[in-house]
Amino acid sequence: MPDNNRTYKILPSEVKNKAKREEIYGKIKKAKSKANLQRRKDRKKEEAANPELREARLRENIPATQENTREFDEAVVQEADEEVVQEEEEDEFAQYFNGQAPKVLITTTPNAGKKTVGFVEELVSVIPNIEYVKRGRKFELQQIIQFCRNRDYTDLIVITEDHKAPSHLTLIHLPEGPTAHFRLTSITEGKQILGHGRATCHYPELILNQFSTRLGHTIGRMFAALFPQVPEFQGRQAVTFHNQRDYIFFRRHRYVFRSGKRVDLQEIGPKFTLKLRWLQKGLYDPSSGEYEWIYKADLETSRRRIFL
To answer: According to the lineage, what is the superkingdom (predicted)?
Structure first.
C-alpha cells in the first residue's frame, strides 16, 4: 500500500522537459537565496547584540590562498635566521647595501626592434645610474661582459626579443656573477596607462615583496643592487617587485598627498611580469656554467609549491 504522506524531492536533472526543468531550478535557486539572506539578517542581529561574535567570525574567516596553503619548504628563510644574515653580510651584493653606488649598463640583441628599444628606454627612466649602449652585430655577449668589467660597471642587463618584441631579460651581476635569466611578459608602457604620472630624476624607494626562500632572497638582492640604497623621498616615487606564485610583478608609482591626510598611488609605468627560468653561479656561460637553479616542467608537482 503506498505511503501518501511521503514527499518526493525532484531534481532538475531528472526532469526531461526543458521548460519545467528551468522552472524547478529557478525555484531551488530562489529558495537558497532567501535562506541565505535570512541567515545573514539573523547573524547581523546577533552580532549587533554581541560584537565579540563578529570579531571571532572575522578572525576565523581567512580565505585559503596558494600563499597561505603553500607546501612546507626547508628553503624558506625565517626572519631571525642568523646563518642567512651572516651570509648576506659577505655575499656579492653586500657592498651595495653598505653605500656603494651601482653603475648599470643595458643593451639588447643586435638590430633590436622598435618595441624592444622603447622598453629599454622605459627601464632607463626607472633605474638610476644606468646607460644604454646600442649593440652592434659583431659584439658577442662575452665581449660585452668584459667591456663592462673593464669600466667598473656593477650590473649588465640584456633584453632579448622574439618577433621584434621584448621576450626575455638577462641580469648579470659584475664582476663575478651571479646571472639570472627571466621570461618577460605582459609589458605595458607608461603612456598606455590611463592617468599615468610623470617620473622625476629622484632615486626611488624600492619595495620587495614575498621573496621568502633562499633562492628568492638571492633574486631580491640582485634587483636591490640595481638601485642606490639612499631613496630620495622628496621625489615620492616607489618601485615594486612583487612576487606572487613565482611570478614577479613590476610596478612604479608616485605618492599623491591629498588634503594632508589621504594618500593615493598614481602609476607611472612601465609595468611587466618576470618569470625566472634559471640562475647561474658566476658570469654568463651557457656551455659550461654551473646552474644554481633551472626551471623544468616536472618541478611543478603542485600549484602550492613555490620556489621564490
So the answer is: Eukaryota
